[in-house]
Amino acid sequence: MRVRLALAATALLAAAAAPLAHAGGADGRTAVPSGGFADLLTVDRAGLLGADGTVTLSGTYRCLDDSAGPVFVSSTLRQQDRSAGIGGTRAVCDGVLRTWTNTAVVKDPAYQPGDARVEATLMQLTPQGDLGLPAPGFLAVEDAPVTLG
Fold first, then answer.
1. Angle at 108 (CA atoms; ends 107, 110), nearest 5 degrees
2. Topology of 2-148 in CATH?
3. Angle at 5 between CA 63 and CA 61, to 5 degrees
4. What average pLDDT does this structure show over 80-85?
5. Segment 71-99 mean pLDDT
6. What 3-state DSSP class applies to 5?
7. Does the pLDDT of residue 34 top 80, yes or no?
8. Cα dihedral 51, 52, 53, 56 sign
9. pLDDT tens by residue, 91-147
10. Quick check: 95 and 64 in contact, CB under 8 A?
11. Rounded distance, CA 61 to CA 27, Å?
């Protein structure tokens, strides 16, 4: 899907954000204490690699407001000279720490078990100009090592 590829490509343009330890309740949600927390994004240190080339990446995110436009979690996987966008997840922006999971089948070039890097972006599309065309705004970015297995 073009939107997912565009989201993944934009991850290369943003600066890295500070990671937050993974937390979550049985339903994958953790309430945020009062005190004015900012948007954030984390990447789990392990990724799944299927025999058919399916890659699954995950982590957590929190965003506070999506009233200006939809928010997405995109991810790009890099290993040696390979780089591919791995899915895109629509975010729920209600101040709650939530989990995200992105999956894609990558055949050429195929990824191998072992060390890689993930660039994940929490990005909001907001209408701009007279035509209201969506433009990306970066809420949080994470560049993290991951082990594919």
1. 65
2. Immunoglobulin-like (2.60.40)
3. 20
4. 93
5. 95
6. helix
7. no
8. negative
9. 999 999 999 999 999 987 789 999 999 999 999 999 999 998 999 999 999 999 999
10. yes
11. 14
Three-state secondary structure call for residue 16: coil
Distance CA 77, CA 92 (A): 23
pLDDT of residue 12: 28
Other beta carbons within 10 angstroms of residue 95's beta carbon come to 15
Task: Look up residue 25 and give its two tokens.
Answer: 């309740």
Calculate mean pLDDT across residues 62-67: 94
- How many angstroms separate the CA atoms of 24 and 27, rounded? 7
The alpha carbon torsion through 11, 14, 15, 18 (nearest 10 deg) reads: -50
How many Å apart are CA 47 and CA 106, to the nearest integer?
Answer: 14
- Of the chain, the end-to-end C-alpha distance in Å amounts to 26
> Is 57 in contact with 45 (CB distance < 8 Å)?
no
Determine the Cα–Cα distance for residues 149 and 114; give it in Å rounded to an integer: 7
pTM given for the model: 0.74
